[in-house]
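Researcher: Hi, I'm a grad student and pretty new to this. My advisor asked me to get structures for two proteins we've been looking at. I'm not sure of the right format, so I'll just paste the first sequence and hope you can take it from there.
Model: That works fine. Here's the first sequence with its structure tokens right after it:
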Amino acid sequence: MNKDQRYRDSQRDYENQIVMWDLVQFSKIYLVPLADFHIGAKASDIETIRGYIDWIKARDNAFTILNGDLMNCAGKDTAPELFEDLITPDTAYRQLLALLTPIKNKILMITCGGHEGMIFRRVGADYMARLAVDLGDVPYRPNGGMVGIRLGKSGHRGMFWAYAVHGWGGARTIGAKVNKVEELAKAVGNVHCYILSHDHTQVVHRLNQRVPPKSKISFKRPVYQRTHRALLINTGGFLQYEGYVRRKGYVPQDIGTPRILVEFKNASKGAEDYHLDLHASI
């Protein structure tokens, strides 16, 4: 068994294990999920991809999750059209590795997309497992995974939880795409941020739920519900409006991805009410 296969098998053994990162040196981080590069496709916007990577590289407190379909992986019997791709999957992989190497220490987790999964199902080659190894044994969760990040401020600690999976199925309307990430929130509960890719459309919205308190529970005084707020993120893509997206009448895709700001802070100066403050921008 080669190194790539051993690594892939070891990560599958931990499918339910949360990827944990201790980043207490930061009270504020940016999480920029990257997906749907489709390296190898003629329409892949390499310059915009490079711009996002450079932005992450330039900031000590910026990190990413790689959420699938980073390669197009066209073959003679695949949905991506072989003769529209500029390069072979092996060449696309080398280009992808070169792009991501400058931020290899900022990649929190890698998942597998439908395009890479298609190659694995046909010939058993898992390019995303190989990428995880070549970037320094980045945690690999092919079917999606949960990430826990600990932040710190003034000796206090706070946990941020996120769940990312590449995505599934087809959807043309904004509502249908948003419904998918809401369905994900039904399957995986009690995290701060859900990240779904695949549909190449940037959408940011909240899911608010009334929940019981986590602490300070008393039987001698009133106990109150609280609001658990979660960010629901649909990431964009990096394909220009040409080829199959134009031919099939899809709406022009959003080029780029949302940027998530996570800050561990207290309500006012001197107060002990530390909490997470979440924002996302497109």
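Researcher: Oh nice, that was easy. Here's the second one.
Model: And its structure:
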Amino acid sequence: MYGNFAQCSLNPTVARQLSDATISVPMMEAVTPRWLLTFLPWIPVKAGIYRLNKVKKCCNEYNPTPFHKEYALGSPGPCNEYGEKMVNLISGHSGEPDLPETFPDYTEKPREFALSLIQTILKINTQVSDIYNTPHNQLHEQMRLTVEAILEQQEWELVNNREFGLVNSVAPEMRLSTRKGAPTPDDLDALLAHVWKKPAFFLAHPQAIAAFGRECTRRGVPPVTVNLHGSPFMTWRGVPLLPSDKLLVSNHAKTDLCGSGTTKILLMRVGEPEQGVVGLHQPGIPDEFRPSLSVKFGGIDFKGIAHYVMSLYFSLAVLTNDSLGMLENVEVGSYYDYV
């Protein structure tokens, strides 16, 4: 009976018992697009080490030697504006003058980058993996979610790690501060003037990108939007701004959309041929689940719990100082009334 009415057909609630529900895989809100991992070129290394060789510096890069100065045989010779020994050349000459003798010299103790790692042990009850595997494979879903968490931590390390993270790898002369707090077109232009050799992309917290968009709207210069990897990106001077919550706002990743705080904006050149920023990993390791990430079966304990050791090996290298710049003291809480 439905209230005071006689039942004329099968109750839908009862009928549901004979139907199969469509079940989603587990969702995790902490998952982000991780655009830095996508746009960063990755260099495969051997034995977990990347040795960064550089031209030897012979003087203070802030006080380069004048080009016209004479040097005695065996002296360090002139330096360029980066403090590197200049290659002796002549140009615009005629006749048969004596050609200069020269050679580029290298640093005697180059820096070596050892791969960092992220590890965990995934545990799953064998009863669960044996019985509850339809329609979704329990072991696969457990590994998928754990890998997502590992990759989120990887991007965080690439940005914030004390030894090799982007924020801590910016040279002093490549650090700029905003003029008035909010990120203006002038501020990003100044950053582009520092990283002017083939800049690849900006990296900023979504709130910083929104704050920059408001400053552009206020000035009547809306940024161009482009579609890359199936997603729209705001650009400035043709350089895309990639969003990442790993660049914290006042030491927080997730903040109130209408809140305030300060953050940083990075600009980088990427790739080994461009002497830029590169990611480091070691593909081809044993029990590889995906490049440079291994999953090793660690056995089953007396409680019937299976153990899987998951390890990700990676690092990051800034090949030259002028390949990475940072805009600091970026205020994200400025809003305007438009008439």
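Researcher: Is there anything I should tell my advisor about the second?
Model: You could mention this: Residues 35-51+111-280+315-331 form one domain.
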